[in-house]
Automatic annotation (TrEMBL):
InterPro entries: DUF7122. Residues 1-22 are annotated as: Disordered. This is DUF7122 domain-containing protein. Residues 2-73 form the DUF7122 domain. Pfam families: DUF7122. Residues 12-22 have a biased composition (Basic and acidic residues).
Length: 167
């Protein structure tokens, strides 16, 4: 049973889980591969943990389970909602491996995105959560998570992380 006061390691597969609604490592890897084209081996050496309902964390290494700490690695994924949502931290760390559902923004579009503004943009891919990238120092870099619906890219940059770069 998942305890909201402790981190518990995700079960490896459906056969290993006691709660039918709980995510598994297998499902997490499948989500990242299916939605974003991130190969499962990208997460070799990482373990996945849940604290609370559907709040997943990613940790490089193998601490004991369960773990009674306030934080473990990085927040990674929200799973107990209609659509799984990757976190800003996860996309900034692993989004460089994404080959699907990636939208690349111009400088002005990226500035508006990190400031938290929604934008009407053309996108010919799937609706839903996207890896948002922009060119930084000559490379395509992931800057965050966007939600694309009805011709609009909605910034998912948390309020405390938004920045006005138009100076």
């Amino acid at each position: 049973m998942n305890d909201s006061t402790k981190f518990t390691r995700l079960p490896a597969s459906d056969d290993d889980r006691a709660e039918p609604d709980r995510a598994t490592r297998e499902a997490v890897l499948d989500f990242w591969e299916t939605r974003f084209g991130v190969p499962p081996e990208t997460f070799d050496g990482h373990t996945f943990w849940e604290r609370g309902k559907g709040k997943l964390w990613c940790y490089r290494g193998e601490p004991p389970s369960p773990v009674d700490v306030e934080a473990l690695g990085m927040t990674f994924l929200r799973t107990r909602q209609e659509h799984w949502k990757p976190t800003l931290e996860a996309v900034q760390r692993f989004g460089e491996h994404a080959t699907e559902c990636v939208i690349h923004l111009s400088e002005s579009e990226a500035e508006a995105f990190v400031a938290g503004y929604d934008q009407e943009l053309d996108w010919d891919g799937d609706w839903g959560y996207l890896v948002v990238t922009h060119d930084l120092a000559g490379r395509r870099e992931p800057v965050g998570v966007g939600l694309y619906v009805y011709g609009e890219l909605r910034s998912q940059v948390p309020k405390g992380r938004r920045r006005d770069l138009d100076t």
